[in-house]
Amino acid sequence: MKNYMRLAGWILAATVLIVPSTALAQVKPHDFRGSWAGKLNVQGMELRLVMNVAFSPSDSVTVTFDSPDQGAMDLPTSKVLIKDDSILVSAKKIGGKFSGRMNADHNAIPGSWKQGGMAFPLTMEKQEKPVALNRPQEPHHPFPYLTEEVFFPNREGGFNLAGTLTLPEKGGPFPVAILVTGSGPQNRDEELLGHKPFLVLSDYLTRQGIAVLRYDDRGVAASGGDFKTATTLDFATDAEAALSFLQKRKDLDITKIGIIGHSEGGIIAPIVASRHPELAFVVLMAGPGLTGEQILLLQSELIARAEKGDEKTIAANLSLSAGMYKVIRKTADNAKAEKKLRDLFTAMDKKNARDTSYHKQTEEAISAEIKTLTSPWFRCFLTLDPQDYLTKVKCPLLAINGSLDLQVPPKENLAAIERAMIFGGNVDYTVEELPDLNHLFQHATTGSPTEYSTIEETISPSAMELMARWVLNNVGK
Known about the structure:
CATH superfamily of the largest domain: Alpha/Beta hydrolase fold, catalytic domain
Distance between the termini: 34 Å
Number of domains: 3
Strand order of the largest sheet: 1-6-7-8-9-10-2-3-4-5
Oligomer: single chain
Radius of gyration: 24 Å
């Protein structure tokens, strides 16, 4: 349920070219040395981009990029061209390119970033100090608990998953929580936009006497498997593999194993619980109670309004989205679906042909969107109904949402989760909306995803305290 422009993955060999000038240039190549930072505005979201320029003793130049708000650092580039006061840096593999000309004071490089057929104005300013994020909640060694790197098999998928198991030092066997990430490829810390929510949460829970297993998504970091072809139902088998692994441990209380799932992880937890009645508890952090299609339409409208979109544009985008989702639901064949989706984009362009404020999507953007819409994961997520699994959950359940969550709106989803509990006859549940928290459980102003990276708080202490207290009250130490 997260849709961000990713700047990561630029693991490319750099090709460097410095073009000598035949004229006396006021700007010398070494004037580009150092760190330069600017802000990209992508669909209303500000992302900082840092360009690091270094020269070797032989005068060859190396350029790397950092995307601090996404936690991506030291990303190599594919080509660098410096001529007089101009610089061009390319990342060919992702089709990204920065070009600019240094100003007369040698302290800024006004230019543009091009990617996916779109161009974004970008001015890089010289930095006296390295750009760093302040994340005060992130724990650092030494820890007052045991940390174990583990591998465990998903026998159904035929690969191993990698993770970290944290254990209180004394008082075992311990209750244990399996952390399951939200949508998109994420590592065991659920790292996104410069935050590591699961690192912070696992540290807190372990200090309270709860063992925690967090693991890299399949195909991410040290885990095997293929993320791109997997669906939510496939990811549920990964969580089941984690459960099976823990049930064989002697230092854990296997009668007190539960799952804490965030966002998409909040539907994976009920899927696993519906199949494994031995599960001791489930915690849904911004877990869905509605179908993916219902959530996506609500999400689009709420985020657009938070970002001050005009009513005409909001209505047009919702109509287009509803049409696209209908095509996906009704058309199983991807080739036929692609044709129908392109027809929708064409009709949209014709309808707005006389509107000077309307911007057609580029071919690259349309192709990328169609690829996402027809992917196995999206097809599954669009129609997956959490009610089918929530009504079968018989263990204690805690469902929490932030009141400012625009991605999984609290009012509609918490109500749907409670209906499922009542219909399924589970009386041991707690549903709570937490004031002023967003989808990541940060204290926020509007709840818009544009705020996520700018907020220093990774996850609200009050939300973590609530979860720890609820788990311990339900399963004990």
